[in-house]
Every structure is written in C-alpha cells, then in structure tokens.
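sanity check both lines:
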Amino acid sequence: MTGGSAYAEAMASGETPVLGAVVVTGEGSAAGVPDLCVVQAAVVARGEDAAEAMLRLGDEVGRALAALDAAGVPRAKVRTTDLALGERIDRTTGLPTGHEATYDLEVVVEPLDRVGEVLTALVQSVGDPVEVRRVRLATADPEPLRREARRLAMEDARSRAEQLAEAAGRRIGAVRRIEEAGTSPGRMLVRAAPVAAGLPLEPGQLTLSCQVIVTYELEG
C-alpha cells in the first residue's frame, strides 16, 4: 500500500494522514521445542438423580486428585476448568435415564517424560470415570520465541517496504508507525494416545508467529 492508499486509510480511520508513505505487513515465525504438557481430562459420574450423580462425582474427583498428589504433581499445576450437571437422555427414546455430572480439570506436567507416568496413575486410580480428552504441548517461557518472531516480522516488513519503494523509484525513510497485528499462542495440539507408563510423546516443534503492520516514510 503506498501514497494515496495510506492517505485514504488514515482519513477513513480519523487519523492524521501520512503523506508519501508506504504501509506494509511483515510476518515472522520462530520455532522451539516444547518442554511441558497440559493435560485436559474429565471425571464423569452418573446417578439416578442429581444428588447421587454429584455424590459419586465428589468421590471420583477425590481419587483423581489423590492420584495426582501421589504422582508428585503440585496442586498449583492442577486447575478446575468446568463443572456440569444435567440429565442423561436416551438417544433412541429421547427419554431421561438419570443424571450425569462432569468435572473438567487441566493438569500441567513437566518435564515431558513424566506424562505417561502421570496419566497412568490417574487412569489406574479412577478407572472408567476419567477421560483424557486432549494433551497440549507448550513451553514454560514463550517470551524468547515471541521476541525472535517479532524481530523476523520487522525484518520482513522492511524488506517488503524496500521492494515497493524501489519499484516506485523511491527509498524508505523513518518508521512512522508500528502495530502488532497478532501473535500466535505458541502451542502445538496433539490428541491423547493410549495411556501407558512408557507412553511415547513426541515433542516435535512448537512454532510461534507474529504479524506487524509498519508505516515507513518515502523519500526521494
């Protein structure tokens, strides 16, 4: 976007227009290796009425938390994400067949080689009422990746601006405005595999992306 386009956009947004400018979007990505796993699990209990379902859920959740304690997972790494209670409906008849209570929790496991051990302890302690729904690989400190992604995005923006300016017979000058359009969460999702003490969990690569919008003055 150059000259008149930048002017029109600035006028439409109510800002002071930058005459003789080029506005470009730069993108950058940085890759690293995940060093922790976030397990999303649910404990499900059923009963003939709501009270019975909640009572059973309390017992099962108690066993789940005790199993995590025994596996050495700090309580600070365990978080309740949802609690639900409702009727169970028979899909064939459409009639209620009792009540179901669900307790969703999120568990942060680090290092990665402990994931199989923790999941095994959880499933063996609680049994069928526990569901491992998803595991999410992440990094404890994504800031270095963010900084690198931003640096690369700015380099990309400058390169694009220089190409456009050269094509117009101009050259770029000072930066007038920088806007960070967005940064990806820096996560990699994988479905939970069958639980076993020696569960192979391949960390792969975690990629974080950044996008910036930069306005350069045009000279010459």
Q: What stands out?
A: The chain has two domains: 4-33+141-219, 36-138. Residues 1-8, 13-18, 187-197 have pLDDT under 50 and may be disordered. The longest helix spans residues 143-167. Residues 4-33+141-219 form a domain with the Translation Initiation Factor IF3 fold (CATH 3.30.110.170).
